TrEMBL record:
UniProt protein name: DNA polymerase
Active site per the UniProt annotation: 54 (nucleophile)
GO biological process terms, semicolon-separated: DNA replication; double-strand break repair via nonhomologous end joining
Origin superkingdom: Eukaryota
PANTHER family associated with the record: DNA POLYMERASE LAMBDA, DNA POLYMERASE TYPE-X FAMILY MEMBER
Amino acid sequence: MDHYETSKVKGSNEHFKVINYRKAITAIRALDYEIKSEEMALKIPRVGKKLAQKIGECISFGRIKKLDHLNWDQEKSKTETLFRSVYGVGSEMATAWYKDGLRTLDDVRALPNLTKNQISGLRFYDDLLLRIPRSEVEQIGKVVEAAAHKLHPEIQSQVTGSYRRGKPDCGDIDIVVARPNIDNGDELFMIMDHILKDLINQGFLVDHLSLPTWEDSYATRPKHFKYMGICKLPGENQIHRHIDILVVPWMHLGAVLIYFTGNDICNRSMRLLASNRGMRLSDKGLFDNVMRGKIRKKVNEGRWVAGRTEREIFDYLKIKYLEPYEREC
Ligand code: DCT
Ligand code: MG
C-alpha cells in the first residue's frame, strides 16, 4: 500500500489500489487468528486473488517478489510515510524532502520555509499521534456544546466522525453545529465567530490550522463554515488534540451528518449508489435529475431533493437506514 500511496495519481488505478489495500488491511486486522497460507488469505473478505498470492509469498519467502522487481526502496517508503504523518504534509512534499536528503523529523524541523500548519503539526507531533479515548472525546464535545448553548440554547452541537460510529478511540474530534431553521451565511458565520471567540478565551483552542473566512456574498444563502485547530482540556497533563468544527445550514444538516460521520469508504459507496440512480450526494444534500456525460462527468447540478435529515436521504435513495455504528464499510 505504501508503494502505491507514494506513486498514486488521483483517479488513477494506483488510487483505487490504495483504497482496496486499506479495506483488506482493515479486514485482516480484525482477524483473531494467524494467516498460514494463500488459501486461508483468499477466504478473508476483501482479500482478492492477487493480494492473497502476495500474502502467500510473504508466508513462504518472507518478501514480495513484485517489490524486488520494482526496486522498492524500503527506507524511502518508510521515511516518506513518516513525513506524511506530520499534519500539513502531503505525498509530493514528502517525496521532495526525501530527494533533498532529509531523513528525520529534526531534519524537517530545521527547514526555513515550513508552512504555518506544518509548524503546528511538528510542534504537537507527539500529542497528535495519540488516539483519543471516547470518554475524552465526549468531554471535549461537551465543552463545545456548552459554548454553543451559552450563545443560544437552541443551537445543536454533535460529535460525529469515528466517535459517532461507536469506535473505542478516535484520531480527532469532528463536531457539527447547526441551529433550527437557520440556513443563511450571515447568521451561521456569527455563530461560528462567537463559539470560536469563547473557546479561545477559555484557553481551550490553542492553535488554528484553518479559520473560516467571510465574503459578503455568503450573507443571504446557505453556507458551510469549517474550523480546524488544536484544543486541550483544562488541567495539568492534558494532551493536545486535533478538532474540526463545522457550522452548517439547518437544511443541509442530514447530509453533513452522513458525510462527517463517514466512514470515508461508506461515503464513497453511498455517492456511487446515488450516481448509479441518476442522483448526486454531497454534504449539501441529495440531488435528483443529474445529467452525466462521458466518464460520469456531471453536466448539471441537479435538483435538491433531500438533506434536512439523514433518514430522508436514505429514504429517497431507497436504501435501509444504517445506524451510525453500521457505517463501517
Ligand atoms: N471523510 C471522507 N473522506 C475522506 C476523509 C474524511 O468522506 N477522505 C469523512 C468521513 C469521516 C469524516 O469525514 C471525518 O474524517 P476523519 O476524522 O478523518 O475520519 P474518522 O472516521 O473520524 O476517523 P478518525 O478516528 O481517524 O478521526
Ligand atoms: Mg475523526
